[in-house]
């Protein structure tokens, strides 16, 4: 195996593939990066068994200027290989695999020789023969991911909750995540036949990594779903994730249908107030802030108290307040995550009772995005 | 005590003073920030016993818009106080100390109340009645610090070596640091009477912190030295550091007077080569690279080898090579630190024998700056 390639283009592919490579894996060969050189181009593969990423540098790519001298394949320790490539002196590099997978890397007058491994021992990536492909705009996909992964559970006690539940039915995609303290649900109409139905759970971690990889230059992402894998394709990159097995809980019944008190906030202004209040709640033992709404006086006030440090009180600006008076306590970190997902828009928060979950929706479009937070009981 | 001040200007002073405040101190009151309000202005003080920093906001400062309503003083927990100030909603803030040092912080509709401490219990800063003051250009001072602190020892086994030795004599300032494996020495003519002599050792950590605080807007720094303290004054900031006690070793005798082999490199090009070679030396057990100079063939080559990973070899570009052939092994991290202190300039490296220290000097001005590195014995 021998090729020459533009170093900066090679680094781009390498960086993408490295997202899937963990240094902590128990399968030694997975700390490696697989390079496979064919006449048509060079494929880089990285995997941590949950996520696998493949990038392809075509032989005809103008920027990469790949020169295929001798096809072949090898696995190289990803961390040290990538450090070497990043520090090479020239704009191009030549890589050659000699006896016993020993690999020479040449650039200018610098020459590295590192040990390689037999690529035959690298695990095979899953084959996905899905007939249907979904096309999603990359902006929308990144938005859906950003809005839902915040609510996935980070605890392995109920593995199913570490994923985002994606359902496609009647031309609508619905994504929902909950860690049982809060829930985030996003719905969107997509351009597929009504007959296309899917019901899958994708690990939140996979979606976060995927989102980071989709750059500004990607317009569309092609999605293929098989029984236990999902595949995302864009540019010359393929991203595989395993699916979580099991039944996702029925989340529809958790969302209250009506409310007793409603308040409209600018999401980013309310976020700033919550951040101030949480300074003291974080310093104390109970990470709780209290919101008091008084409809008659048209007053909304937030409080937090940490006996060791002090307390904070702030009267909030709001757009509209109606319904019954209420005092409700909640974890400000959940509120911060939820508010960030609304950006600058105006939101409506709807309450029932001090111990019943409350919801946040965009005031303009209440149907397609909802965040739910369970309050904290305080005495 | 009560005042109103521009929040951003207050944050600047606060940030400077916080450099001296450690959260890990064993003296609880030193986790606090002292605020002292007088008719002439507000003084902020932070200290970790080794370093103390005072900043002053004058009542007449246009930007700070300080309004002194009632003089007084208080000590507030620095970390939470600074977080609160940074998150306040408006451009100004009002701070008022009420009963039992309870402190109210108001900005817009947000109001914080935190516990304060009696400022009478805060340690007094040392009084420095030095008659002589030295004036140093801030650029020169930062350069001297940057070039010497790299070589101070980080080990407490010989505390004296954790400092930089500053000597002033015959109108010349000399700064030297060594951790016994390497040495850095800078000399510079300064504008003081020949009769002014000082011989002090300043902790390297103090100098690093001082250097970070001296911004672009500072032209001159005033230095006062007393028996066990040194004081640096600039703008409205005063920086105190304790001095290390004891005799600094005689370093002049460590610097070789002649050499058998000399090579001239561009410092930044040589640095890039050393960084490549050190990728493999770091990965292995011995952090060593080898430099081989062959005068007859006019070749300079660097090698590193890590049995577990692989090896690297690079032929180096240089400007001039003369003298005896030599092969020498050294710790690449010492070499990297030394080379960085020369920036883009051309340097001359002078060798005697494989186990004798070698020196680096700027090719243009060999008298005023020298770095010395002790080689590593390899078999």
TrEMBL record, chains A, B:
The UniProt entry's GO CC annotations, sorted and at most eight, read: cytoplasm; DNA polymerase III complex
| An example Gene Ontology molecular-function term | DNA-directed DNA polymerase activity
Domain DNA polymerase III beta sliding clamp N-terminal, by residue range, is 1-126
Instruction: List each copy of the DNA polymerase III beta sliding clamp central domain by range.
Output: 136-250
| Localization annotation | Cytoplasm
Write down the CDD domains for this protein, in alphabetical order.
beta_clamp
Q: Quote the SMART domains the UniProt record gives.
A: POL3Bc
InterPro entries, alphabetized: DNA_clamp_sf, DNA_polIII_beta, DNA_polIII_beta_C, DNA_polIII_beta_cen, DNA_polIII_beta_N
Q: Which residues form the DNA polymerase III beta sliding clamp C-terminal domain?
A: 253-376
Q: Which UniProt keywords apply?
A: Cytoplasm, DNA replication, DNA-binding, DNA-directed DNA polymerase, Nucleotidyltransferase, Transferase
Q: Which GO terms describe its biological process?
A: DNA strand elongation involved in DNA replication
**Its job:** Confers DNA tethering and processivity to DNA polymerases and other proteins. Acts as a clamp, forming a ring around DNA (a reaction catalyzed by the clamp-loading complex) which diffuses in an ATP-independent manner freely and bidirectionally along dsDNA. Initially characterized for its ability to contact the catalytic subunit of DNA polymerase III (Pol III), a complex, multichain enzyme responsible for most of the replicative synthesis in bacteria; Pol III exhibits 3'-5' exonuclease proofreading activity.
Q: State what protein this is by name.
A: Beta sliding clamp
Provenance organism:
Liquorilactobacillus hordei DSM 19519
């Amino acid at each position: 195996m021998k090729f020459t390639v533009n170093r900066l283009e090679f680094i781009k592919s390498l960086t993408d593939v490295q997202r899937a490579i963990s240094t902590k894996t128990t399968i030694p060969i997975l700390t490696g990066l697989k390079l496979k050189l064919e006449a048509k181009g060079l494929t880089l593969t990285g995997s941590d068994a949950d996520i696998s990423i493949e990038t392809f540098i075509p032989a005809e790519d103008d920027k990469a200027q790949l020169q295929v001298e001798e096809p072949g394949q090898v696995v190289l320790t990803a961390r040290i290989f990538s450090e070497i490539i990043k520090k090479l002196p020239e704009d191009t590099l030549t890589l050659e695999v000699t006896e016993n997978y020993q690999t020479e890397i040449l650039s200018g007058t610098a020459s590295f020789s590192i040990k390689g491994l037999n690529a035959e021992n690298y695990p095979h990536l899953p084959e996905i023969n899905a007939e249907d492909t979904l096309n999603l705009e990359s902006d929308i996909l990144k938005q859906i991911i950003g809005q839902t992964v915040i609510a996935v559970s980070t605890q392995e006690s109920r593995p199913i909750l570490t994923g985002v539940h994606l359902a496609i039915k009647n031309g609508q995609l619905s994504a929902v995540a909950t860690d049982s303290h809060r829930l985030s649900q996003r719905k969107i109409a997509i351009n597929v036949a009504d007959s296309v139905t899917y019901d899958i759970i994708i690990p939140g971690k996979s979606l976060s990594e995927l989102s980071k990889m989709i750059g500004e230059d990607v317009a569309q992402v092609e999605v293929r779903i098989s029984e236990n894998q999902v595949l995302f394709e864009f540019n010359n990159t393929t991203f595989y994730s395993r699916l979580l097995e099991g039944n996702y809980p029925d989340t529809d019944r958790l969302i209250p249908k009506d409310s007793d008190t409603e308040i409209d906030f600018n999401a980013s202004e309310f976020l700033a107030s919550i951040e101030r209040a949480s300074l003291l709640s974080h310093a104390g033992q109970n990470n709780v802030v209290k919101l008091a709404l008084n409809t008659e006086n048209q007053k909304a006030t937030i409080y937090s108290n940490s006996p060791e440090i002090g307390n904070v009180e702030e009267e909030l600006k709001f757009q509209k307040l109606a319904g019954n008076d209420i005092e409700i306590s909640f974890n400000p970190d959940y509120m911060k995550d939820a508010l960030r997902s609304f950006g600058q828009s105006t939101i409506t928060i709807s309450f029932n009772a001090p111990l019943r979950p409350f919801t946040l929706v965009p005031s303009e479009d209440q149907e397609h995005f909802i965040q739910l937070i369970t309050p904290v009981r305080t005495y």
